[in-house]
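tool=predict chain=A
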Amino acid sequence: MPRLRDLPTSVRAHLGWWVRDRFPNRKVVREVQGVKMVLPWPHRLPDYAGDGPYGQNLVQLAAALSTSSAPVTVLDVGANVGDSALQILDATDAQILCVEADPYFLEYLHLNVDDDPRVAVVEALLTPDPSTEATTAVRTGGTTRFAEGEVGDALPTITPEALREKYPSFSDLRLIKSDTDGYDVELVPAITEAWGGTRPVLFFEYDHRLSRLAGNDPLAVWPRLEKLGYHDVAVWDNGGRPLGRTTVDEIGGLTAPLEERVGVKAQNYWDVAVVHEDDAAGLVAIEQLVPAAQRL
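tool=predict ok
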């Protein structure tokens, strides 16, 4: 019988996940890319991040948008355990509004950010449709999507308009981050519309498979953003490595890699940052991270 250390790395990783998944409520303190945080033991973040660029594109973007006169204001939708907020605050001065609807991850979010006055937590499911009844949290590894079901473990909903009205100190958003497992393509334009003429930079997970699983057309997001005045797009792979630049009117024709299967179940997804055509500072920020000369 082979020893554990002799097995391929991927096999050992999946065995480790299987063991950790047996203890979903065990709390651990981990240092992820230099930042300490409380996590549930099964959470995949430390495995995905390692010492690589995973998740650092968002952190670098927030830092690039910072100015000496005021902290960068961030809306973190799908805040999970607060890992993005913690890493942004470690890199730059910021004020962050965290929105999370899964009670399981909310416990860790509060443990991680409640002592920092720069962070506010909203316990609700952000949705453009006030009649949404997403009652079941479907958890996989370290992430959650919401679906209709019989188990009422999701929190009440809130619309982007109501969120802005309830938190006036965030009325001038500079950066919107959304990671909601397939709802981003509907939610990001709705948030942008609710925040009117503030023209925040948009950063979201762009996943064709999860978008369709949630009942959304992933390609429909680009014409909506174009109508709102957005133009330039920076693209990273799902490991945080820059792939190149494009525009909202061209990206729909470049998404073939997102339809390719990788392995047995996994598929590709992208992180994207989208900048308004009148946002010169936002364009400078993404140029630092993904130069326009690097075409997608």
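The chain has one domain: 51-289. DSSP finds ten helices and 14 strands in the chain.
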